Amino acid sequence: MISTNQFKNGAHIEVDGKVFRIMEFQHVKPGKGGAFVRTKLRRVEDGSVIDKTFRAGEKFRPVRTETRRMQYLYDSGDAQVFMDNQNYEQIEIPADLDPDSMRWVRPNDEVELLFVDERPAGLQIASAVDLEVTETQPGLKGDTASGGGSKPATLETGVTIDVPLFIEEGETVRVDTRSGDYVSRA
């Protein structure tokens, strides 16, 4: 069993028969009454986020999690197909499982696939990725790094982000996957 004082961000617990990922938590010790833990939990099966409060010391069943290094092969419409690099076995995961992370993954990229109780539950990707700019307005003379301003650019995965004015089509840029912001030229 896992207690509330063993909570960690990213850990998984089972509450009322459903598996949740702990996104954030806070121990609260009021001046009057017993201590409690305020948490923000993401349900693994559908990704919905809830706020829940537990009494300090409450116990939960820990959930077995593991990550496997897999290669993203292709999108089959309603699912994404991944191949295990160890045994070359292919698995399909639903397209709506982790759409935020999939925006940054190209075919043949390797990712960490998270499994909770032997079921795929999400992707773990790098905090920054290098992607090629496939479409943007041409830069004009005088567009410099110190000139400020930005313009929209479409990347090779189809995502549109704002880049500085001096970035041209065909250049590779580094993007922060958590915020979707341009970081630098790659």
Account of the protein in words:
This protein is an all-beta fold. 2% of the residues lie in helices and 54% in strands. It has three domains: 2-62, Roll (SH3 type barrels); 65-124, OB fold (Dihydrolipoamide Acetyltransferase, E2P) (Beta Barrel); 128-185, OB fold (Dihydrolipoamide Acetyltransferase, E2P) (Beta Barrel), CATH 2.40.50. The strands form three sheets. A six-stranded antiparallel sheet has the order 1-6-2-3-4-5, with no helix packed on it. A five-stranded antiparallel sheet has the order 9-8-7-10-11, with no helix packed on it. Strands 14-13-12-15-16 form a five-stranded antiparallel sheet, with no helix packed on it. The chain is flat.
Distance between the termini: 46 Å
What proportion strand? over 45%
Task: Give the overall average pLDDT.
Answer: 83
CATH architecture of the largest domain: Roll
The helix count comes to 1
Overall tally of domains = 3
Biggest beta-sheet profile: 6 strands, antiparallel
What name does the CATH topology of the largest domain carry? SH3 type barrels
* Helix share, percent: under 10%
Order of helices and strands: EEEEEEEEEHEEEEEEE
Q: How many strands appear in the DSSP assignment?
A: 16
Q: How would you classify the helix and strand content by structural class? A: mainly beta
Large-scale geometry: flat
Low-confidence stretches: none
Level-1 CATH class name of the largest domain: Mainly Beta
In the sheet with the most strands, the strands line up as 1-6-2-3-4-5
